[in-house]
Design goal:
The chain is built from four helices and no strands. The chain is mainly α and about 70 residues long. The chain has one domain.
Length: about 70
């Protein structure tokens, strides 16, 4: 089944928020482990860390545009 693009973007935003909230730079591996441990019920189609990273990189432009659009509204 895998993750949808919106789920990959959601995880990306979660990872960014987590690193800013706790003032640390979590590795992708440690973040992926946290998702597997604590959020798997929300992301049952979780893919491997490396596939998730590639998808995240490919969707980075979409995520930037979404954030830019939100910033303009507020």
């Amino acid at each position: 089944m895998g993750l949808s693009d919106s789920e990959v973007i959601t995880l990306s935003i979660m990872q960014e928020g987590r690193s800013q909230e706790f003032l640390r730079n979590d590795s992708e591996l440690s973040f992926h482990r946290v998702v597997e441990k604590d959020y798997l019920h929300l992301f049952p189609g979780l893919i491997s860390r490396s596939r998730c990273h590639r998808r995240r990189k490919s969707l980075m432009g979409v995520q930037r545009e979404m954030l830019r659009s939100l910033m303009n509204r507020f």
